[in-house]
Amino acid sequence: MEQRNNRYQFQSAPFEASVRHLNQRHLRPQTSSQNSCHDIIESLFSRLSVSHHNGQPSFPASYGDLFVGSALDHPSVGGQPISFQGMGQNLQNNGVNACLSMGLHDYVSYPDMLGSNIDFWDSFIPDVNGLLRADSSGFSNGSINGYLLPKSQNSVRSSLYNKRPHRLQESSNYLPLENLRGRILRFAKDQNGCRLLQSILGSVTQEGIDMVFLEVIDYVGELMLDPFGNYVVQKLVEVCSEEQRTQILLTVTKSEFQLVRICLNMHGTRAVQKLLERITSQQQVSVVMSALSLGAVALAKDMNGQHVIKHCLEHFSDENNKYLLNVVADNCFEIATDKSGCCILQQCVEFSKGEARDRLVAEITANALLLAEDGYGNYVVQHLLGLKVPQITANLLRQLEGSYAALACNKYGSNVVEKCLFESREEQSTQIIWELLGSPNASMLLVDSFGNYVIQSALLVSKVV
């Protein structure tokens, strides 16, 4: 290597050993294609320069700018600064891609640097333009112009390998949106690509927004469910026009239950909530509520879906929520006995007003006895008692009358009886106590694992009386 015009003047022993190692590995007869490949490799290595600064290894303090289309200013390997300037352009212009498949990794593997191998071959993957870019697991998040950047493999190496850059810094300056035409959907589903699109959408003109919108509108439902694509949809919803927002709504409600299925997804529910935040016209609200009402029960019983219902209750009018609340009331028992459903049912009671609320309360009251003995339903009954509305309390007490002794011995019902004692008026609590004392099994309440707490609460109320 050193006899060929002294192209490689390495000043460090590790690099000399590495080059010698490469020579020994490839001392075999070479074909014309291999000679061509060697010439290209030599051309690449001719652009490498290694130097010491005052005899000390150089470590860049930061490399936040060492990516996305620019030559490396101060990178180092094994503490030795290396210049990669122009290397990426050389790769594009000299057809090295063909050589890569022939074993370029055999030539750019540096053994025993700081006690381990650095294999640059594994650090590069083809980008969406068919060029080579650094793998996202390396210290670079990729090169849009085709520059090759190494991947970190050892935490004890210099800070160049141990730190990660702030991704997508000034991304839109390096890659105009026009260059992504026809690739928007693919970028939206990529971890780095979705961040790039969000960055671009934050500062692009209306023309650029229209371009992105046209490429994703037919796939917006699919993107809402994607771990990365949903963020692009959320950003697009923020910047698009009212008309485009309406078109997104119509797309995700085109088929029955499509919007409901999106709401049930952990990624989709975020995108839908962002969409609901931005809708303003009555037409948009009507489209959404008609679609959600079809799956109100499924949404109420789902951990992700319940957030969408809660958002509607908090931000839409009683008139808009009327159909949704009617479906919830019709399926009150099923929803109240579900872990997630019992929570959202309490929210429905809390936020509803007028006729919709009266119907909801009436349905809960009608099922109060069964709900009081349920592990989740008892919380709904207690919530109604906690409202301290005299008429609601009186109706509930009347529904439970004659069953207080049995409920007192139930794990969940005993909590309801105690709530009745504390939240009712004096004459009402007195009536409950007389019913407990007049029960044939009154003496058993004292030794029952749940009934004894009811008796203690009755004594507290009696003292107050």
UniProtKB/TrEMBL annotation:
PUM-HD domain ranges (all copies): 156-465
Residue spans of the Pumilio repeats: 179-214, 215-251, 254-290, 326-362, 363-398, 399-435
Signal sequence segment: none
One Gene Ontology cellular component: cytoplasm
InterPro entries associated with the record: ARM-like, ARM-type_fold, PUM-HD, Pumilio_RNA-bd, Pumilio_RNA-bd_rpt
Xref: PROSITE patterns: PUM (PS50302), PUM_HD (PS50303)
Pfam families per UniProt: PUF (PF00806)
GO terms under biological process: regulation of translation
GO MF term list: mRNA binding
Superkingdom classification of source: Eukaryota
Keywords for the protein's UniProt record, in alphabetical order: Repeat, RNA-binding, Translation regulation
Gene3D superfamilies: Leucine-rich Repeat Variant
Role description: Sequence-specific RNA-binding protein that regulates translation and mRNA stability by binding the 3'-UTR of target mRNAs.
Protein name: PUM-HD domain-containing protein
Organism whose genome encodes this protein: Hevea brasiliensis
